[in-house]
What does this fold into?
Amino acid sequence: MPTDAELKVAVLGLGYIGLPTAAVIARTGAQVLGIDVSQSVVDTVNSGRVHIEEIDLDGLVSGVVARGNLRASTLIEPADVFVIAVPTPFDDNHAPDIGYVLKAATTVAAALKAGDVVILESTSPVGTTEKVRDLLAKLRPDLKVPGTGPGTPDIAIAYCPERVLPGRILVELIDNDRVIGGITPRCARKALQFYRRFVRGACVTTTARAAEMTKLTENAFRDVNIAFANELSVVAGNLGIDVWEVIRLANRHPRVNILSPGPGVGGHCIAVDPWFLVHGDPENTPLIRTAREVNDAKTGYTIGRAEALIEAMPGAPVACLGLAFKANIDDFRESPALKVAASLAHRFGERVRIVEPYADTLPKAFDGSGAGLIDIDTALETCPILIVLVDHDVFRSVPLEERAAKRVYDTRGIWPDQPQLAVSEVSPIRLAS
Ligand code: SAJ
It folds into this structure.
């Protein structure tokens, strides 16, 4: 293996995972080339700036670009290690689409030479790394690929899923344990040598298929557990019981640890990845499928509860607190909070005001609704109805005296001291999928 300074790494896909990964590897002194299909992303990175918000990423990227350790391009170049970090979306039937992965592998094939290591990091259905191997074998018959017959292969191919949490990406890229699955044990060992250069957490090797399923399992575990909390919140809501108090009390049991209910599950991982498991074995995944359906249905349920509260006070202004898919980030993609707020805005028009400290303007979903963007102080002064949709710190810290007289639907449980609505004021609503 080359020294850190000699090592050439190509990272395909400069998104939420690829760009931080490229920058962290560049910080070790390696020569990193980031590849992206978007010229504007390439130009932004080459000027030392970032196109995504992530804590400390801007400083890191500007430093490694200035030192010449990170460059970006739309075109592939030879490298020692190729890391594929492109999206894996699903279609309307929840079937995974690995088209971007195969396209990236085709790009890699053009630059591949004996001795290289190819690593897939994108969340992928089980069997994808083998499909990458088969494609490379087809496109490069001059190279002996692993797992296709006797003899030492020319290249190594492995799957190593990213597991970082948005908002903590740079910390977790270094500190989290990594699961490294090789097409063969030798492939896993080659990939392990690469990750040991920048990962402080333990690096554990296995097969590519087990590593692929491990990644899907982690996010399905979280989805199932959030679904349990969301189902409880519906039952408790219909009974007029504070679900947050019930969860706090139940969690005092030494072997109970219930997650938090909310307006649904957002982001591009937990709401997507469990479907890859369901699609792989539809007849044997009733629990994982139902959890997905419960979490999706929680958004419609939240809209129904909020509408009932708003209708009970005709004409009163309503503040929706938060649009992001989770606390303290500016990411609105697949956000249940945004879906709830936009639905209320289109139904109740200019009565609805949105508070989102991470937005300068309202997203397109509000076009034509009449809703406006205001700050938290104005909301507290002017809106008798508050719908809490995101647990941003700035909302959490509003003291009781500023909200005690409000009618509040707190979908995130950020204000445990808030007076509860009487059972008679809460209309029972079915959680319909
Ligand atoms: N949520 C709840 N209740 C909870 C926890 C989360 O309603 O108790 C909601 C959040 O508000 C949000 C959604 O779930 O809408 C997802 O948020 P998250 O913080 O659980 O996860 P992500 O999507 O930001 O990141 C997840 C992480 N996976 C796990 O924790 C198992 C991260 O480590 C993965 O790297 C990431 O998915 C990914 O890229 O797969």
User: Anything to note?
Assistant: Residues 208-239 form the longest helix (32 residues). The longest strand covers residues 8-12.
